[in-house]
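Section handout 9: paired folding examples.
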Amino acid sequence: MASLQRKGLQARVLSSEEEEKLQRDQALVSDFKQQKLEKEAQKNWDLFYKRNSTNFFKDRHWTTREFEELRSCREQNPLYNTERCKVFQCDLTRDDLLDHIPPESVDAVTLIFVLSAVHPEKMHLVLLNVYKVLKPGRSVLFRDYGLHDHAMLRFKAGSKLGENFYVRQDGTRSYFFTDEFLAQLFVDAGYEEVANEYVFRETVNKKEGLCVPRVFLQSKFRKPPRDPDPTPDSASLGREAF
């Protein structure tokens, strides 16, 4: 198994066959089933991880290569101790992170293949929740499925929940991001865009004779630094005195 990677600014261009498939598969899942999927989202993901354990999302050791902030958080912090870690479970769309983490105390937040599993209408709640605990001037490190990823094109008819939003056979859901949608989502929540680009990969299986196009979105969005209190100059002090 080999992988080829390149980065670019534009979404992947579809072949005529792929474009035709997406045009055919426009029927949406019924409102009743969509409400049921939203209600059972946690249960479906719990079953997914129980069934797959760590075999599905394997550790590819790329996070510290792609996001230097993670390495610096570990090596510049003298209090880092792998035996002491704050671990808790929460629903980022509903549970307040301030119940577990002090405000503006976090150096870096990773949202790696997290936001795609959240309903698009609730994604802003995740970003607002994270905003409260992130230090000013620090970043959210993001990587997730991009528009026209191979996984998106593999969905069969009857799997579409909305624009770029699909459900798998096991009931888990996935959203496929455009750079414009993601940027607007973060900016509306108060963040500044630092980097936001597509990552194109080709996963090659020579034995099977397959070349699968993968598309991800890799981004950094910063919580604006807090402006220092302005110090009046001597001229303004003189004018105020008179």
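Moving on to protein 2 of 2.
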Amino acid sequence: MPQHPNRHLTDQADLLYTINHVFLPLKLPQGSDHSLENDLALSQAIFDAALAFSDQLPSDKLVLWSSSLKMLRNFKDSIRFSVMSAKEVESQVNSMDNNDVLVYMIRAQNAAVVMRKLESETIFESFEMSPDPTAVMGAKGRLICSYPGPAITVPDTIANDATFHAELANFLACMDKDVLDAAPTRKKAKSTVLEERDTTHPRHITKLLTSILRGLGSIADVPRIRKRIGDDVLWDSAKLPWRRSPLWLVIRVALQTTLERGALGRMTYKSFMLFFMARLTTLALDHDLSNNILHFMSAKIARRLFKLGSSASPQLSQMISMVTGDVRSILEERWGSVQDAQQVSPPWAPENLQVLRDAHLSLNTSRKYIHQVLYNQHSSPQRSPFDPSHHVGVVPSSRGSLGIVRMGSSALPLP
């Protein structure tokens, strides 16, 4: 049975933001809608869905899923403020147990860092959060990207040191707020202006931090995933363009790579994504959203269930069937209301008619034509005299009769 949807997405603006960035419907905003409040709403919605998803799993998998829950909770806490707290990061790193995962958004550097605690080492992974807009607009279809980027393993003799934890937390917190690269510029109206629509190169994380950790450890050989990135750059009379939420990408990459390397596997990740999208669809029904959005959401979750096939649990399949059935019922009810309204004849109220005003025609460019029609002032076409330049001659016909030939033209025999 479907769980009650996220209680935090009570505001319709927050819900529309989440739907736009999760479902990527056909009609999207034409300007940036990013804000800290929207990020918090999205991260909270995912965490609440992960809690509810526990009911979909058998008891022997709940312990494995709890690691992902802990990762999502820590991630949600790390983005509560516009500037990352070094103390909170240090506390989370100190609290890591074996098989725990931490993920951080380094917002000023357009990069994400994933830490994986193993029995005798800690693996540090990094990748770019928001692709370069030139690559997004230049791609035919969707971008195909590999995640994560560089990966470094650091032994526990260093990774468990308290000084290392403090320095790492301080480095990440500073990088989260410090703008180190000079902003790109462009020419506009013969003057140089800052180009704020470009994304920051993640080199200070993917290269600088990687190089520092490489001096303490070694390159890690980790499994990588390929994702088709559905992104866009939409801009119309706005300061900044609309881009798909980097937070949504970071969570998906961290969650998918974590589940695929464990016993839960890829199907658990796909099932959770479908479960989360179904909860959003249920919430969209409660907010009475437009027909286009409801149909798009229903079609998308139905297609995801079809692709899962027999891998989807009966409980999840029943949930999707109920949600899509509710959407269909509402759309049919709305269409029936439209049909009923169209069948009713308009009321006849002649006293409300304004014949003179409604019959007034404005023909501003037809005055000359109307004047000519009314007064019959059409000019008759002048006839030019016919004066042929050729001569007529008579020659014997091959059949013994006479034929008329016009010199300079084809012969025309007489009957």
